[in-house]
Design brief:
Layout lengths: L7 H6 L2 H14 L6 H14 L3 E5 L2 H14 L8 E5 L5 H8 L3 E5 L10 H7 L4 E7 L8 H10 L3 E5 L7 E2 L2 E2 L6 E5 L13 E5 L2 H10 L4 E3 L2 E2 L10 H11 L2 H18 L21 E4 L3 H10 L27 H9 E4 L7 H12 L6
Parallel strand pairs: 2-3, 2-4, 4-5, 5-8
Antiparallel strand pairs: 1-9, 6-7, 8-9, 10-11, 12-13
Bound molecules: pyridoxal-5'-phosphate.
Length: about 375
């Protein structure tokens, strides 16, 4: 039997009875879009993150895009504005910006954490810069004190792409509560995953929250009266009901992920496999456990031969994608090197102890090609 990279069925099987009861509650209610389940989940998720508002939307990309749309409607952002982003991120971070006709300015990461490097961010700030979009990559909080100080000094919005970092915490402040607004994804493979697509915008800004709430629903606050040219991107009642069940177990799941990461970090001692750098235990929610190896493809093949699934997050950076020919001239050597060297090992709350042991043994047995 293969060691799975992530097994969504096992993850949800643990709460099958509760999930089925919640699904039955929605079916029997006869109300499937923007009802009590979404309202309750929004309250519960806002409380979990420690912010005033959460607005359920269709997915994580829409959550990011609707934050920018909301700021446009408020006059805080306009088309053509530059937004600083990490070069090494999932493409959704870029898509949200270009969808709003703004300009992503990608910068190099910190070489040990792979998160935004505040020095590189400051160097990229220019007259058209209006915001920093920080990504808590792989589940680890970026250097928020430094980035918040920069945002304040240069009068920039600080927006968090927290799609990988549900539950990461620093000094009592959780991912999503640091910046002006944050986007979460509830894609099934995320730390808090629905049984389909879902997302949320969280913020302490009451006006932004009400703009996003209108924008996700055809730009309407009162049925058939449209204040904005909105979209249809709503978290549905069924997914909200699933998420309400799973939110109760999120911290237990993160503890389980942390345990797996501790075993990996103790057990994998190989001169050619670099372990992830950890700022502090609580600041990492271990969405992914990513090692670095100059012979990444050989390592992945070796794991494959031993029945261990692994993935690459991500093989090609956004500025090297066909979708972004406009960024062809951008040079980000460290970002590009990382994309050639990173490998994500199996990680999740249902990974068994013996499976963790197999992954460690397989890494230890890796023989670097000459
Ligand atoms: C998953 C992810 C998203 C997008 O979320 P979806 O729900 O899949 O649209 C955005 N940013 C990052 C960093 C992600 O990992």
């Amino acid at each position: 039997m293969d060691v799975p990279f992530l097994n969504a069925r096992d993850i949800n099987a643990r709460y099958a009875d509760e999930l089925k009861a919640a699904a039955a509650r929605v079916i029997d209610s006869g109300w499937y879009v923007l009802g009590q389940e979404v309202a309750a989940f929004e309250r519960e998720f806002a409380a979990y993150c420690g912010v005033r508002h959460a607005v359920g939307v269709g997915n994580g990309l829409d959550a990011l895009a609707l934050i920018l749309r909301g700021y446009k409607e408020l006059g805080a952002l306009s088309e053509g504005d530059e937004i600083i982003v990490p070069g090494n991120t999932f493409i959704a971070t870029f898509l949200a910006i270009t969808e709003n006709r703004m300009v992503p300015v990608p910068v190099e990461p910190d070489p040990t954490s792979f998160n935004l490097d505040p020095g590189c961010v400051e160097a990229a700030i220019g007259p058209r810069t209006r915001a920093i979009m920080v990504v808590h990559l792989y589940g680890q909080l970026a250097n928020m004190p430094a980035l918040l100080a920069l945002a304040r000094r240069y009068n920039l919005l600080l927006i968090e792409d927290a799609a990988q970092a549900h539950g990461a915490i620093s000094n009592g402040c959780r991912a999503g509560a640091f910046g002006d607004a944050a986007a979460f994804s509830f894609f099934p493979a995320k730390n808090l995953g629905a049984l389909g697509d879902g997302g949320a915008v969280v913020t302490n800004d009451t006006v932004l929250a009400s703009r996003v709430a209108a924008l996700r629903n055809y730009g309407s606050e009162v049925k058939y009266w449209h204040l904005f040219q909105g979209v249809n991107s709503r978290l549905d009642e069924m997914q909200a009901a699933m998420l309400r069940v799973k939110l109760k177990y999120l911290d237990d799941d993160i503890a389980r992920r942390r345990h797996v990461s501790q075993r990996y970090r103790q057990g994998i001692r190989h001169p050619d496999i670099r372990l992830p750098a950890v700022t502090s235990e609580e600041q990492h929610a271990w969405h992914l456990f990513v090692v670095r190896c100059a012979h990444r493809d050989a390592l992945q093949q070796q794991l494959q031969r031993l029945g261990i699934q692994s993935q690459v997050h991500y093989p090609v950076p956004p500025h090297r994608q066909s979708a972004y020919a406009s960024l062809r001239d951008v040079r980000l050597p460290l970002t590009e090197q990382l994309h050639d060297e990173v490998l994500s090992l199996p990680m999740g709350p249902t990974l068994r102890e013996d499976e963790v042991g197999r992954v460690i043994a397989a890494c230890q047995a890796f023989e670097c090609p000459p």
